[in-house]
Amino acid sequence: MTASKDGQGLLKGSAKWWMLWVLLTVGGGVYLGTELFISEQKALFLPGQTTHGHHQIEMQCTVCHADGFNSEVVLQDACMNCHGDELDDAQDSHPRSKFTNPRNAELLNHLDARQCVACHVEHRPELITTMGVSQPINVCVHCHTDIGEDRPSHQGMEFNTCQSAGCHNFHDNRALYEDFLLAHADEPKTLSEPVRPLRNFSARYFDKSGLAERLTAEQILSRAPVIKQPIPENWAHSSHAAAAIECKDCHGNEASWKEKPEHTVCESCHENEVSTFLQGKHGMRLAQGLSPMTPAQSELNIHVEKSHQELTCNTCHTSHDFDTRKAAVDKCIGCHNDEHSNEYLRSPHYTLWRKELKGEAAPGTGVSCATCHMPATRKGSGSKGRIFVDHNQNANLRPNEKMIRSVCMNCHGLGFSIDALADPVLVEHNFPGDPSVHIESIDMAVERDEKRGKRESIYD
Ligand code: HEC
Ligand code: HEC
Ligand code: HEC
Ligand code: HEC
Ligand code: HEC
Ligand code: HEC
Ligand code: HEC
Ligand code: HEC
Ligand code: HEC
Ligand code: HEC
């Protein structure tokens, strides 16, 4: 019997629990009316631990279950609300539309792939592998049994190898499609000009705001006495001062002075940074209107003294300095304390980063934590386009092939990037040397293409 069938039985039973929970909450709410009490109630009815991706918001039962607690439709809508755009951007290889096509109907006898919960259940930690997946690793066998016949290169391959690193993913195959492999088949290990794109924020801001005559930092400061606040030490050298962003832009005026401006204040000028921040693990609690995440709520290895530091914009962009170079490495390793993070300081990438900081190498040639985890991303095209820093550090994290196009290929060839990311030991030690594995997908694509005689006509 499949997991989803079991789940349905449980769900029917659990509807009673849900009613009970609602009654208790309402009743309890009348008596105590404290949020804490409600949380404890919910925890009592949580059937089991939620996945790595959702544990921070597991007490927000209604974001997934809404009122129609045992309805698959409700769950499906909830998943799509939060993940729909990202799957679209990834050109999902197995969108729901592939399976609503009558031609593929019989494939669903084994596994109803139209439903996210067919492969991603919750509260059942014993079923979960990586990335919140609750199906065994050979799940592809249900629909691709004929692959060996269609592709001789695949004969005899085990179904538990399809989604091993570097070969295929279920959703995001943008760096792995055959055409893409062929187009980038002959690239060297490192490109001749290895640079990452640079953000171009200010240009657009000033176009829009029409601040033709900017105030100097001195002019802003000369007005400061009006607001009766001490002038912060770092202020005068900050890029906000240089850009004539005044005290009141963040703190409000004297009457409404806010001591600690929150991310909602930054949002008026930095919309993309805020919205992406709220989608990743650093900001996902704020997105739900909960208190900011603190490392104490996580199972990752974090320096103990940071256990209770809240994660907001100001954690990395300390007021009033806002120097992004400090944010890109120092802040990260101030918290993250695992092998991968610590070993970074011994990697060739860090050497490049230090050279950039010292001015010995061109801007964009260094590789910081943020280069990989918060890549500069283009939004919009042409003159309206702008390059901003993606603040959702989960957007390209897993499966790690997502990093190939957004990061590695700015500087490395496709083949080298695939191999490097498919080597878990190399990733754990933060890329100190050459990969020790070779993924044959490019070789296979080239061989197939040569047999068809197509490669010569297109590429020679
Ligand atoms: C991130 C989304 C999410 C959140 C948050 C969430 N659930 Fe669930 N829940 C699910 C999914 C997915 C299933 C599985 C449905 C299936 O198997 O078809 C599920 C199933 C259940 C079931 C059915 C029993 C079972 O084990 O299948 C109960 C009861 C339940 N959830 C209660 C809760 C409660 C109570 C909370 C809040 C404390 C909560 N859930 C929060 C996604 C969520
Ligand atoms: C309120 C928004 C929200 C809802 C609803 C939601 N998710 Fe998520 N989900 C997140 C966030 C935030 C993360 C963590 C960041 C990331 O990995 O993208 C995440 C992570 C994940 C992951 C990756 C886990 C990992 O370890 O890499 C999967 C898979 C996933 N969600 C599937 C689902 C499915 C299926 C549903 C519907 C049952 C669902 N989500 C409902 C917000 C949501
Ligand atoms: C047939 C099984 C299956 C179904 C159905 C499925 N997924 Fe997945 N999902 C996977 C597998 C396997 C992975 C692991 C990474 C990969 O292979 O793409 C994954 C990974 C993910 C991730 C994290 C990695 C990423 O690429 O962003 C998210 C988010 C996600 N799924 C959301 C969803 C949502 C939302 C739905 C419903 C629209 C859904 N999945 C339906 C199998 C499935
Ligand atoms: C529920 C059935 C089902 C499952 C399970 C399934 N696939 Fe597919 N897959 C399909 C269908 C249908 C197509 C489209 C085939 C076609 O158009 O000829 C497809 C196409 C593909 C393609 C080609 C994509 C493209 O757009 O060219 C790849 C690669 C792929 N699947 C890999 C996988 C991998 C890896 C797994 C396991 C993680 C998997 N599939 C699991 C049904 C499934
Ligand atoms: C870009 C937004 C921004 C601007 C502009 C700004 N501040 Fe701040 N300020 C902040 C933030 C954010 C905090 C809260 C820091 C925290 O929570 O650690 C803060 C905190 C403060 C504090 C509390 C003590 C401290 O340093 O943490 C004072 C006083 C202050 N600001 C004065 C000023 C004055 C005077 C100006 C104008 C010269 C100014 N700020 C301009 C964002 C700004
Ligand atoms: C009124 C508009 C406005 C507000 C509000 C604002 N900023 Fe800015 N921010 C700017 C402008 C303009 C720049 C300068 C861009 C440049 O020089 O490229 C900037 C630059 C930055 C930079 C880049 C600094 C650098 O040296 O590269 C960071 C980081 C930043 N802001 C963070 C924040 C945070 C965090 C908040 C909220 C506490 C905030 N900003 C509020 C307008 C604003
Ligand atoms: C985990 C640390 C971290 C947090 C939290 C964070 N930032 Fe950043 N931010 C960075 C880093 C690192 C860079 C520079 C990356 C680079 O240049 O490679 C950056 C760059 C920026 C920039 C300038 C680049 C651009 O996109 O134009 C702005 C503006 C900014 N952040 C605003 C914000 C705001 C607003 C928040 C809160 C929603 C925030 N940041 C939260 C680390 C962080
Ligand atoms: C205040 C401490 C703190 C700072 C500063 C911080 N992080 Fe994190 N980060 C965390 C915690 C805690 C989590 C895990 C949240 C969870 O378990 O859901 C996390 C999650 C992550 C993840 C996702 C891990 C996963 O398994 O999904 C990445 C990647 C990451 N951080 C990178 C960075 C980078 C890069 C920087 C610097 C630009 C940074 N972090 C700054 C505390 C911090
Ligand atoms: C060259 C790119 C690159 C650099 C530089 C880099 N990382 Fe990573 N990071 C990765 C990849 C790839 C993964 C693995 C994703 C996967 O396969 O699970 C990862 C994973 C992580 C995780 C998740 C680990 C876990 O156990 O869940 C954290 C946290 C993280 N990195 C933080 C950092 C920090 C902090 C720095 C800087 C000190 C850094 N990374 C530098 C590429 C990089
Ligand atoms: C800004 C450019 C840049 C980016 C982005 C970048 N790298 Fe690098 N990387 C380099 C340079 C330059 C070297 C030095 C190696 C050389 O000279 O060939 C290097 C070295 C390495 C090495 C060690 C090779 C050796 O011989 O010591 C590995 C492995 C590696 N990179 C993997 C990656 C992966 C994987 C990514 C994407 C997640 C990535 N790099 C992103 C520029 C970059």
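^ heme C complex. The pocket of heme C (ligand 8) is lined by residues 56, 281-282, 295, 298-300, 302, 306, 309, 311, 315-316, 327-328, 331-332, 334-336, 369-370, 373-374, 393-394, 397 (CB under 6 Å). The radius of gyration is 26 Å.
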